[in-house]
Amino acid sequence: MKYFPIDNSLFVINRKKFIAKMKNNSIAFFNSNDKYPVSADTTLPFEQHRDLFYLTGINQEETILVLFKENEKVSKQVVFLTKPNDLLTHWEGARLNKKNAYSISGISEVYWLGEMEKIIEKLLNENTSLYINQNEHYRAKVETETREDRFTNWLKNKYNFKNFERSNPILQKLRSVKHPIELELIQEACNITEKGFRRILNFVKPGVWEYEIEAEFSYEFLKNRSRKFAYSPIIASGVNSNILHYIENNNQCQDGDVLLLDVGAEYANYSSDMTRTIPVSGKYSKRQKLVYNSVLHVKNEATKLLRPGILWKEHYDEVGKIMNSELLKLGLISKVDIHNQTKKNPAFKKYFTHGVSHHLGLDTHDYGDLNDPIEENMVFTVEPGIYLQDEKFGIRLEDDVVVQKNSDPINLMKNIPIEIDEIEDLMNT
User: Fold this and answer.
1) In sequence order, which ranges of 124-283 are alpha helices (DSSP H)?
2) How does DSSP classify residue 37?
3) N or C: which end of the chain has fewer CB within 10 A?
4) Is the full-model pTM beyond 0.85?
């Protein structure tokens, strides 16, 4: 991998936390992702299953983690890997050996996949419960049968007399609160994103194509040990800035346009998620400045509201009040609109059409139960926007922040230019 080695104490701690939540006399299984085919003999770039990575740090396909808990004092951790061979090494490079796997994960018991069934049988008894791992994220829509799915079906067929438990509710809570090492990795992803953004500030001008800007980000990310964008980048100029998930990135930037950049670097499988909206010409118009400053004000106030104990929905509602106030100042809504609004159809929804914050971590939309109170060391995006279809531009601003116990959240993107004067100065030097 391109990233520097991660202290394996992170994965040791993560497994310890998960085992503590397991029932006595139970086994949990976690699988790597598949390599997905394109056509012929080509495959998509491999992406490790984030749950397996969270618990092991291993980035290799055909990997299985087994956690066994007998009681509060006795547990066992085993990882299974593809056995290296000379032919595979010659064609695709070296695979992890047992020593490598231990160094990465901190797991001393490493076996080859061919030994798995025999070892599982030794751990089972008539009272053993089996934990299966399925994607239960609130935004998930999975139409492809995964390696995890096939393994789960195999377990249910072979051990249909066992009690089956769910791993995901445990992981939803554990993964949502970040360890200090995870915060360092997310910070590095944000730092790389900053380098990309600063690079394009001197590059953007009328006549530049959106895909050329995407290429500049790609270069800077790869140069700094980021494997890729954390998600499909949005490089949206002019009227495209009103399209929330615009990913075509194939239009030419014009004088007078704003350019909405929703991009983030990945580092060691951890995501960053930034949005900035800059003037193609290097100077915002008067109207663009007014809308921009309203969005910036909402973002700053929304950040302060992220504190332990508040619910995600409560945060959204409070931010909505602030957004209503700004839209009123801009003349986009009236007091009558606010008076007549409903919970399902608030006044601000006409111009601010998406959520304010989401969990961030190993996934861009990371695990986290939205019905649970926000906790210290959760990482959230803060991303308000105002979209003006009639005026053919939209403004969105977004930072990644860490919730603190007794103070405002820490902004992991505090060094990325966001004030109008700073952006204009950097674009014109």
Assistant:
1) 147-158, 168-176, 180-201, 210-223
2) B
3) C
4) yes
Residue 287 three-state SS: helix
Residue 55, phi-psi category: left (phi > 0), alpha (psi -120 to 50), beta (remainder): alpha
d(CA 102, CA 261): 40
Average pLDDT over residues 307-324: 97
* DSSP per position, 254-279: -TT-EEEEEE-BEETTEE--EEEEEE
- Nearest to 46, CA basis, from 32, 56, 57: 32
- pLDDT at residue number 41: 87
Length, in residues, of the chain:
429
Domain with CATH 3.90.230.10 in the chain: 180-427
Distance CA 356, CA 303 (A): 10
Higher pLDDT, 159 or 88: 159
Q: Tell whether domain 9-176 is in CATH 3.90.230.10.
A: no
Does the pLDDT of residue 57 top 80, yes or no?
yes
* Mean per-residue pLDDT, 267-296: 98
Encode pLDDT of 62-114 as tens digits: 999 999 999 999 999 999 999 998 888 888 888 999 999 999 999 999 999 99
Task: Return the H-helix or E-strand segment holding 78.
Answer: strand 75-81
CA distance 85 to 325: 65
CATH assignment, 180-427 = 3.90.230.10
